[in-house]
Amino acid sequence: MADTAAYLVDAVLVDVPVRQWVLTLPYWLRRATARDARLCSRILQIFTDAIGRQLRAYWPSGQYGAVTVIQRFGGGLNLNPHFHTLVPDGVYREAPTGGIRFSSVPSPTPPQLHQILQKILAKLRAHLERLGYGMAQMIDAPVAWHACLDASIGQRQLLGKHAGAPIEKIGGADPSEQYSPQPLRAGLEGFTLHAGVTIDALDRPGLERLCRYIARPAVAQDRVAIQPNGDIAYTLKSPWRDGTTALTFAPLDFIARLAALVPPPRTNLVRYHGVFAPAARLRPKIVGQAPNTLTMTMGHKNANNGSKRRRRNLLWAELMRRVFGIDVLVCPECEGRCRVIACIDDPVVIRKILTHLRLPATGVQRHPARGPPQLDFVDAV
């Protein structure tokens, strides 16, 4: 999460205002999108093409760029495939001298947002009809996907004597609480389109926080707790509209809920579009063109090994500094930079050094690994 966010901020979305576009799908389409990687990619292509046409309406000769993170989960660990797309609020234009200029565009208005969503639905309806069925037929068609996916989408229990019942909720409704409508939001036939979150070109920390948000994992471990009866309680990040603050699952239901969130094999959840696409002609002139070289500012691994291909992964110490503000390579006594002086692997030398420093020279004794617990049941039978 942190490494992806750092790469997007320092190498891709360089010094441009960014808007987050979010497209959510209706329940009847989530099953097919979760299982069919090609359908998911096609919906995403229709979505980003509609955004690109909206931006190019102001600069026909310009080209847009976008980065999408496909999230498969909702706030309650439910299967909810949707798209978080970060799009610079403008287009890139190639100058006669060969350089790249960024031209801003006005923010979309609510009518424009509704018009974009209408175009997305029209394109998607035509695509589904080419596949042999219409949107209405998909809604009425029986569920042909795995029961695990259907239970996760519908927030219902999968196993046990209460199979098919709604999941248990903790918390109650608060009728006095009012929810204000979100700005720049359009809804149509179960689809919703959001475009109200923007980040200024100079707000690089804010952009990095947004990138971490869209690249976050499905489960927050600090919100998972085992109850006295053995059930799993998952605390929600924010209460739902009905006042629910946590959900409870039977252990097997919790495992089934996590299994439903696993994407199909060979599915890339981070996609690049427009000028950010791998084969885009202008990509080398845009991506990685920060004022300072990445190897100097980001502390990349193998930065000075002389190889032509540079790895973009950050060192663990650099990630700690960027995320938590803790520089683990600074000495707490002299405040100097720590660096590796030598690596000793001779057991004899190691033992002499530890003995001289009056430190334990022997390792912790390891206990033998126990056998699988299922063998005990076999012996008992």
Provide an overview of this structure.
- This protein has 381 residues and is an alpha+beta fold.
- It has 2 domains: 2-166 and 180-216 and 264-286, no CATH class; 294-356, no CATH class.
- 34% of the residues lie in helices and 18% in strands.
- The protein has helices at residues 2-12, 27-35, 37-56, 110-130, 135-140, 147-153, 204-214, 251-260, 283-286, 294-297, 316-324, 347-356, 374-380; strands at residues 18-24, 65-73, 79-88, 90-94, 100-104, 168-170, 185-188, 191-199, 224-226, 232-235, 246-249, 270-274.
- The strands form 3 sheets. A 6-stranded antiparallel beta sheet has the order 7-8-1-3-2-12.
- A hairpin with a 5-residue loop joins β4 and β5.
- α1 packs across α7 (204-214), α3 packs antiparallel against α4 (110-130) and α6 (147-153) packs across α8.
- The longest helix has 21 residues, at 110-130.
- 25% of the residues are buried.
- Residues 175-179, 291-309 and 377-381 have low confidence and may be disordered.
Can you give keywords for this protein?
six-stranded antiparallel β-sheet, globular, four-stranded antiparallel β-sheet, 2 domains, 381 residues, alpha+beta
